[in-house]
Specification:
The chain is α+β, with helices and mostly antiparallel strands. It is built from four helices and seven strands; from the N terminus they run βαββαβββααβ. Strands 2-3-4-5-6 form a five-stranded antiparallel beta sheet. The two termini are 24 Å apart. The relative contact order is 0.21.
């Protein structure tokens, strides 16, 4: 089932997600609904807060990035297989040079800005079967993970922008939270007048 994506301004996007365990109600169905919702909106990631749940769960399918001709074969191979569910994720270490990439967010449609993030991230998480994994991601895989991880920490990519950029975006962000935008997919707006 395709769920509405929560728009900028909703308080759930500012909550730090709580950990879950294998007894979380209807988890398999929730993950499948999130997957359908992400693909319907043509996203490469979707976090539970974006569908109104304050839990530490997100999905990533970065395979569309693998088609970028500017990437090395190693990067393409990594991204072709980067389709995962992350439960109770933690960042253990971020390192490397900060680099800029133009990011967007399904909860903030029509806003894209350059965001600086570190190149490498060492993470720990559980998969759908609650097996624990630890790995180091780099490049675009690390970036997509960091973006989705921010969601379960109550952080949005716009928080990482300069105060000038934030001021310039304020009117656009207000329009989004008031539902004065057509994203092309189902959304739930916090301040939309009936």
């Amino acid at each position: 089932m395709i769920l509405p994506i929560v728009a900028y301004g909703d308080p759930v996007l500012r909550k730090v997600g709580r950990e879950i365990d294998a007894n979380y109600p209807n988890l398999k169905e929730l993950i499948e609904d999130m997957r359908q919702t992400m693909y319907n909106a043509q996203g490469v990631g979707l976090a539970a807060p974006q569908i109104g749940k304050d839990i530490r769960l997100f999905l990533i399918d970065a395979t569309p990035f693998a088609e970028d001709d500017d990437l090395t074969e190693e990067e393409k191979n990594t991204l072709e297989n980067f389709n995962k569910v992350f439960i109770n994720a933690k960042i253990i270490k971020e390192e490397g040079e900060e680099w800029s990439f133009n990011e967007g967010c399904l909860s903030i449609p029509e806003v894209r800005e350059d965001v600086y993030r570190q190149e490498f991230v060492t993470i720990e998480y559980q998969d759908e079967e609650f097996n624990t994994h630890q790995e180091t991601l780099k490049g675009l895989a690390a970036r997509v993970f960091q973006h989705e991880y921010d969601h379960i920490e109550g952080v949005l990519f716009t928080d990482k922008l300069s105060s000038l950029k934030k001021r310039l975006l304020k009117r656009k962000l207000d329009k989004i939270s008031n539902g004065k935008i057509n994203a092309g997919y189902r959304m739930r707006f916090p301040n939309k007048k009936k």
